[in-house]
Fold:
Amino acid sequence: MKRLNPETGKPFKAGDKREDGYVFQNYQLQKIKDNGYFQELWISSSTRKKRELTARKRHIKKKEFAKNNPGKRRLNQKTGKEFKLGDYVDGRYFLSYNNRYVRLDGYMPEIWGNWETFHRFKIKSLKVNAHYRAKKEGYKSDLTIDYLLDIFPKDFKCPALGIKMEWGNKKGTRTSPSLDKINPDKGYMKGNVAIISLKANSIKSDATPKEVIKVAKWLEEIS
Structure:
């Protein structure tokens, strides 16, 4: 069990300070004290600063090396081309190349994950794009990754068209999940968004329900 921060009533976070100046690092989940709480790792402010400085120097050194020695990108043996987001190999999904560092063999490190990690990665993209569009429109979106995961259709079916949605590798894949503003005037806010297929989103666009119905009736008449 995690001991709570008396000031916040929540578990301690990395960086929280005690009265004696020591800084919280993490809970030692593999070690449980006699009182049932996880052991905690606290270090002095000076030690923390030294560690941060060392890590910063190491990061800069790796970044400089990668800048002067651009690494090669390993290719997907099935396609003969560079890996793309979502490529599935040996039970893992490709997320990205890490172009900040270069391995000893001269290749860029790769970031892979399981299905949950890949799904969360794509949801994060929806959130980031929504925040970007909201900022351009002059307001701050309150969407979070966890909120979008919660409203995502559990059966992966588009709520509007009933078709199966799937994350596509190519931009603009019609069955890909997309974020829709239910009421265009209210923006990308909690309670005003739904995740539907790109195809349904394209049909809806910024039209009102009545306008969509009118278009549908017109199509039926001319078909």
About this structure: Residues 69-113 form one domain. The first strand starts at residue 23 and ends at 32.
